[in-house]
């Protein structure tokens, strides 16, 4: 701890007014790139209000300490008013934020505390995980004022959940199957699934040619394609190669249905860009479980 605080010289960190543009960029990736984002708010309370002349010194010592504890990918900033800070934790959720605050509090309370000032103080923290790209930074700022006003115990940590409501994400599901009845069975299996935060739109095509002639697959939405390898006019492998040559090909998650069981066929399919390989006949419950696992990764 000897290297943490050597001086109370003012440390240069971002201000609250600097943060909104960075926050807007980060929150855009919450949906697009499925990035985690958590905002932490810290407030220090001084027990002896008569020592106001020392508060500025304490504020700089805490700022130095926080600079030493955050990662290079995190963003530390001062909140308006004294003895308040915020931290944008990128690529971290609520649990990581909670662990970070607990570690900070433990270091401050330890006998090896880095603070060299005769002024007793305590900390309180707020954790707000953001899972909605419609959240406005000013709403977070307003919320932390409300929550801090309600905290009564020193070293208290409060989790705010009101920014975790995820928007519905539209996902297209295409089924390429020549057998009309089996195609309808697969569509019904998909439609019966309950997947949180996802709105599924399904469509059945009789072959690859019909699918590629439509404009159904051209939108930017995540698109799950469940198709036979053998189809009239254009088979599944032709469709696979077409989709994987598209500029936005990563939006496609491709399930290949086939009677081919050889290792060579499977290797070729995976190397060509198949995500899941279904050997017919397959169990529909297992198929549904695989789909749910796919959605869990989105």
Write a compact overview of the structure shown.
This protein is α/β, with parallel strands linked by helices and 298 residues long.
Question: How would you characterize this protein structure?
Answer:
This protein is α/β, with parallel strands linked by helices and 298 residues long. It has two domains: 14-160, Alpha-Beta Plaits (2-Layer Sandwich), CATH 3.30.70.270; 169-297, Response regulator (Rossmann fold). Helix content is 37%, strand content 24%. It is built from nine helices and eleven strands. α8 links the parallel β10 (252-258) and β11. The longest helix has 16 residues, at 94-109. It starts with 13 loop residues before the first strand and ends with a helix. The model is unreliable at 1-7 (pLDDT under 50). Pfam families: Response_reg. This is Response regulator. Residues 172-295 form the Response regulatory domain.
């Amino acid at each position: 701890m000897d290297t943490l605080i050597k001086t109370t010289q003012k440390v240069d960190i971002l201000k609250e007014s600097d943060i909104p543009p960075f926050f807007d960029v980060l929150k855009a990736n919450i949906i697009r790139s499925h990035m985690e984002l958590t905002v932490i708010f810290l407030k220090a309370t001084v027990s002896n209000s008569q020592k106001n002349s020392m508060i500025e010194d304490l504020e700089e010592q805490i700022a130095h300490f926080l600079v030493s504890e955050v990662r290079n990918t995190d963003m530390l900033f001062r909140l308006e008013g004294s003895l308040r800070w915020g931290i944008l934790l990128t690529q971290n959720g609520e649990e990581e934020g909670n662990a970070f605050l607990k570690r900070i509090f433990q270091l401050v309370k330890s006998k090896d505390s880095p603070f060299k000032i005769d002024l007793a103080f305590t900390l309180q923290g707020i954790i707000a995980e953001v899972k909605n790209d419609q959240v406005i930074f000013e709403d977070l700022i307003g919320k932390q004022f409300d929550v801090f006003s309600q905290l009564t115990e020193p070293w208290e940590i409060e989790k705010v959940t009101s920014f975790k409501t995820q928007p519905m994400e539209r996902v297209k599901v295409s089924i390429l199957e020549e057998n009309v009845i089996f195609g309808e069975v697969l569509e019904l299996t998909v439609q019966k699934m309950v997947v949180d935060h996802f709105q599924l739109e399904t469509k059945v095509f009789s072959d690859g040619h019909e699918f590629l002639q439509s404009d159904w697959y051209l939108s930017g939405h995540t698109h799950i394609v469940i198709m036979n390898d053998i189809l009239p006019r254009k088979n599944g492998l032709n469709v696979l190669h077409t989709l994987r040559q598209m500029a936005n090909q990563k939006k496609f998650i491709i399930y290949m249905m086939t009677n081919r069981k050889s290792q060579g066929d499977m290797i070729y399919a995976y190397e060509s860009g198949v995500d899941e390989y279904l050997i017919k006949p397959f169990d529909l419950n297992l198929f549904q479980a695989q789909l749910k696992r796919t959605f869990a990764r989105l």
